[in-house]
Amino acid sequence: MNPVVEPLSWMLGTWLSDPPGAGTFPTLQPFQYLEEVYISHVGQPVLNFSFNAFHPDTHKPMHRECGFIRLKPDTNKVAFVSAQNTGIVEVEEGEVNGHELCITSHSVARMSFAKEPHVEQITRKFRLNSEGKLEQTVSMATTTQPMTQHLHVTYKKVTP
Known about the structure:
This protein has 160 residues and is mainly β. The protein has one domain (3-159): Calycin beta-barrel core domain (Lipocalin, Beta Barrel), CATH 2.40.128.20. 0% of the residues lie in helices and 64% in strands. Strands 1, 2, 3, 4, 5, 6, 7, 8, 9, 10 and 11 form an 11-stranded antiparallel β-sheet that branches. The radius of gyration is 15 Å and the shape is globular. It is found in: Cytoplasm; Nucleus.
């Protein structure tokens, strides 16, 4: 592993939602989802990730995103770059402190025919809890709604 990404080594592995994740937003009916997360490295000063969500009953694919997590060398500053199957591309920036990563969107771009309302800002918090499980909370603001929690999921590690 490149030593630059060592502060994020607690995120590495394959993770599965346990229990299913919960989603809500003022313009949506509450929902649940299953999710597989893969976070890996190939020796570069960056982590690779993919998030793959599935319907809990039918197992049909839902949300997908993939990208990279970079650390600014010799700091706790982090950049999270992702592309989503909804047509959104984003750069989020923030800090890692111990086993917690908090990031906020720095830029959000979308394809010209993306569904409305448009996402304008996203925040994420990842943390490794005392049971060794990874938790993620995602909040977002759209063109019609202020910043509101959208997703919360807890993952158990299935491979290192």
